[in-house]
Predict the 3D structure of the following.
Amino acid sequence: MSFTLAIIGRPNVGKSTLFNRLVGKRLALVDDQPGVTRDRREGEGRLYDLTFKVIDTAGLEEADGGTLEGRMRQQTERALAEADLAVFIVDARAGVTPLDAHFAEVLRRSPTPVILIANKCEGRAAEAGLAEAWRLGMGEPVPFSAEHGLGISDLHDAILERLTVLREDQAVSQAPRVSKGKKAKKEPSTPEHAEDGTEGEEPPSGPLQLAIVGRPNVGKSTLVNRMIGEDRLLTGPEAGITRDAISLDWEFRGVHFRLVDTAGLRRRAKVTDRVERLSAYDTKRAIDYAQVVVLLLDGQEGLHKQDLWIARTVIEEGRALVIGLNKWDALKDSKAAISEVQDRMIRSLPQVKGIPLVPISGLTGRGLDRLMDAVLEVYETWQSRISTARLNRWLSAMLEAHPPPMVSGRRLKIRYVTQVKSRPPTFALWVSRPKELPDSYVRYLENGMREDFDMPAVPIRFLLRKGDNPYA
């Protein structure tokens, strides 16, 4: 039986630390500063023989619904409504606070079963807080240490106990009602998933990893919410709301995507806060694992120096790049804005030509189809392969048009080319003296390949190799 487990509690009680322990990775940002987590993050948890979806939530706080804290609380309440079980964490060292008592009363009225955990129970300092947790009226607290993994077996037993009760309740509610004197019809046995016609089909390939990056407050989370059709991510006028890189599953025209909303990237000189540095590292990791990256610009502000740095980072990592010009509906002179961004890209990013620039509005969804068309197109180019025969015919024509230069009175010879990998397209080039081949000639070959094989918007890599000398 698969189930969903939500982790609930006030700020800085160890929710993200427990989340990281259950998923077995350092996915959620962890810091001593309270309120680091804002969006709810999902992952695949494992606890001995149990596998489940686990949701890390923002800290519960009393706040007005219009404030950032109030919107964070609404996200937590949605996670609780979606979950089959919830874990309510209190800090045993700090003891039970009035905020803990208030939200414990809210959770007792919730239909979702709740397990009480007294975290940070390593050492004697937590004994008083563990005893105090009993007065929350949520049963026996599980002594635990998310940092050191103490109490894992007790948490497993508590979850298993709640699951047993949950299964029994579901069995009773789903049992068929049979009137007296009539026998219930026996349904014909069908293999799992046979009703949707997927039996015997090959399992689908992995999802297309699509990361949305950009400077703070350009509308990344608003765009992702519009894509998936729900207010899944926190948005608002405040800059820098998103801190974690949040991944979401999404399907568009039959293609399975894993969308990653990232924190805004500012210039390194302006980043002084430790949490912001962790957020920047999380965004960099999202770029590393992405296949296509959408760099979102604020159409009213144009292309900044920081945007160019982000674009270069994406290209250096070998990822396909699409640029979205957001807040399109608010522009007065749209043609001038597009022309200005395109001119700046040609001057500043000569190493990758033909990057798609798509005007969109994340708020209204205008241009979203064109954006996804560009994403799918560059993805196909990014994983394309070219036969060795075609490559060497092309190489002969390129060498005939412009032969390699002469070095020390001898002309360099390029004998052979083949594609060694895709994603991004990477080619091995056999050269008589690889170290002597100028970068300008490699760029000539790269530009020719990009034009002749129609490969815009993706980085192309050449590996220079030297063949064995048969006379040596």
